[in-house]
TrEMBL record:
Biological source species: Podospora appendiculata
EC number: 1.2.1.3
InterPro entries in the cross-refs: Ald_DH/histidinol_DH, Ald_DH_C, Ald_DH_CS_CYS, Ald_DH_CS_GLU, Ald_DH_N, Aldehyde_DH_dom, LUC3-like
Keyword Nucleus on entry: no
Positions annotated as active site in the UniProt record: 252
Catalysed reaction equations from the record: an aldehyde + NAD(+) + H2O = a carboxylate + NADH + 2 H(+)
Protein name: aldehyde dehydrogenase (NAD(+))
Keywords from the UniProt entry: Oxidoreductase
Gene3D superfamilies: Aldehyde Dehydrogenase, Chain A, domain 1 (3.40.605.10), Aldehyde Dehydrogenase, Chain A, domain 2 (3.40.309.10)
Boundaries of every Aldehyde dehydrogenase domain copy: 28-464
Family matches, as CDD domains: ALDH_AldA-AAD23400 (cd07106)
UniProt GO molecular function: aldehyde dehydrogenase (NAD+) activity
Family stated for the protein in its record: Belongs to the aldehyde dehydrogenase family.
Length: 471
């Protein structure tokens, strides 16, 4: 497969679709936008339905040979992919900053995360479960890959969330089509170009396009599964479209994560952690803290400490190494401060780019839109509580159920409360901690199925029972 040096990409300025290990162009092209400068990025392809057909055909043709490799062999390919990403980490981090607005340190962390995720995932193995084995018969349950899978990837973590889906699908023995968001297609296309030097033809395909590309994938009869990360509204459309061909689906949808803060916490330690887990990636994280319920005994002190800490977080462009919070990724989220119905606690004046000030909402009503709905930006609500049962009811009174956390020096009490939160992942004295060794799922409208870990790999498979009569 060659040395890592062979995988060094020559440039990060030209972009192509990847179909059957061929870098292909399209008649039409389009430009994503650099959110720090509101200027166009280099052109990317606009795929047609014929491109989708060719990608599916290539993935179908590659599937039998890829399926028949051992898990160790497939893991070796993925590890080589991780090595190649590491060899290009500077180029990927710069490109990621340009298309998402992530500051240099944040972009570098995401590139490291995808490499680390691959290495953490490939240690998992699907094993056969012997249900019964007697002199007369043997019954075994095993997991077999589905075929061609497709990942529809959002713009907030365009590399991480794509690699999460790709890694589970490929390790299980499926082939894969990657559809990046129209807002952030560039890094995915470069990952595809890198993958063409590593994987057998047709195993990985990457298609850039516009809003019609997703529906073409969800309707295609040659695709066995769609893994989608995005909004609840779009997730419902994906599920509806997949029903016509009985595709398997994994939906990782929106969240409205709550943090419950007890009065015994150390403010100097806890406030910075909660602020980080609320505003990281400029708040554009589905499992970021969006509602902070603080006990009334410490509410005023917590608010003051939170406002003081937020003031230390510099908002700026992605090419500034001192930037802590970059712009929001697209203009849908860039609401001018004078249009907000509340006064920001910090302001950032820029001549270009999609910038928002980090903003704390002081004890809004529970039925206000900012509390009831998912917000996706530099806004966090702070709310008072005094009674445990009442705050638990308020926290759970939502259609979302992605994550939640409880903060207290009394770990036993905090864990007991966390276990009663109606969410797919709950944390005690932390938030947002994820890894390839665990699986993450949403409750309620926050999704169906799981991402990461052995459970995710199994969800890229059909269950097969093998019944053998020995006599």
């Amino acid at each position: 497969m060659g040395s890592v040096a062979d995988y060094k990409l020559e440039d990060f300025q030209t972009f192509y679709n990847l179909i059957n290990n061929e870098l292909t162009t399209t008649t039409r092209t389009r430009h994503a936008t650099n959110p720090s400068t509101n200027t166009p990025l280099p052109a990317v392809p606009v795929s047609t339905s014929e491109d989708v057909d060719r990608a599916v055909a290539a993935a179908q043709a590659a599937f039998p040979a890829w399926r028949d490799l051992t898990q160790n062999d497939r893991a070796a390919y993925l590890l080589r992919f991780a090595d190649a990403i590491q060899a290009n980490k500077e180029g990927f981090a710069k490109l990621l900053g340009e298309e998402t607005g992530k500051p240099p340190q944040s972009a570098a962390v995401e590139v490291w995360l995808i490499e680390d995720h691959i290495r953490g995932t490939v240690v998992h193995r699907l094993t056969e479960e012997v249900i019964e084995d007697t002199d007369e018969k043997r019954f075994i349950l095993r997991h077999v890959p589905l075929g061609v899978g497709a990942g529809i990837i959002p713009w907030n973590f365009p590399m991480t969330l794509g690699v999460v889906k790709l890694c589970s699908a490929l390790l299980a023995g499926n082939t894969f089509i990657w559809k990046p968001s129209p807002y952030t297609p560039n890094t995915a296309l470069k990952l595809g170009e890198l993958g063409a030097r590593i994987f057998p033809a047709g195993v990985l395909n990457v298609l850039s396009g516009e809003e019609d590309l997703g529906p073409w994938l969800t309707a295609h009869p040659g695709i066995a599964k769609i893994s989608f990360t995005g909004s609840v509204a779009t997730g419902k459309k994906v599920m509806q479209a997949c029903a016509a061909t009985l595709k398997r689906v994994t939906l990782e949808l929106g969240g409205n994560d709550a943090a419950i803060v007890y009065p015994d916490v150390d403010l100097a330690t806890v406030v910075p952690k909660i602020v980080f887990n609320a505003l990281v990636n400029s708040g554009q994280v589905c499992i970021a803290i969006k509602r902070v319920y603080v006990h009334e005994q410490i509410y005023d002190a917590f608010l003051a400490a939170m406002m003081a800490f937020v003031q230390t977080m510099k908002v700026g462009p992605s090419d500034d190494p001192t930037t802590v919070l970059g712009p929001v990724q697209n203009s849908m989220h860039a609401i001018p401060a004078d249009k907000l119905s509340f006064k920001p606690d910090a302001t950032t004046k820029t001549d270009a780019g999609f910038f928002l000030p980090p903003t704390i909402i002081d004890n809004p009503p529970d039925d206000s839109q900012i509390v009831a709905d998912e917000q996706f930006g530099l806004i966090v609500s702070l709310l008072k509580w005094s009674d445990e049962e009442d705050v638990l009811r308020r926290v759970n009174a939502t259609l979302f159920g992605l994550g939640g956390s409880v903060w207290s020096k009394d770990v036993q009490r905090a864990e007991k409360m966390a276990r009663r939160m109606e969410a797919g992942t709950v944390w005690v004295n932390t938030h947002l901690e994820c890894g390839a060794n665990g699986s993450y799922a949403g409750h309620k409208n926050s999704g169906i199925g799981a991402e990461c870990g052995l459970l995710s790999i199994k969800e890229w498979c059909n269950l097969q029972g093998v019944y053998v009569r020995k006599d």
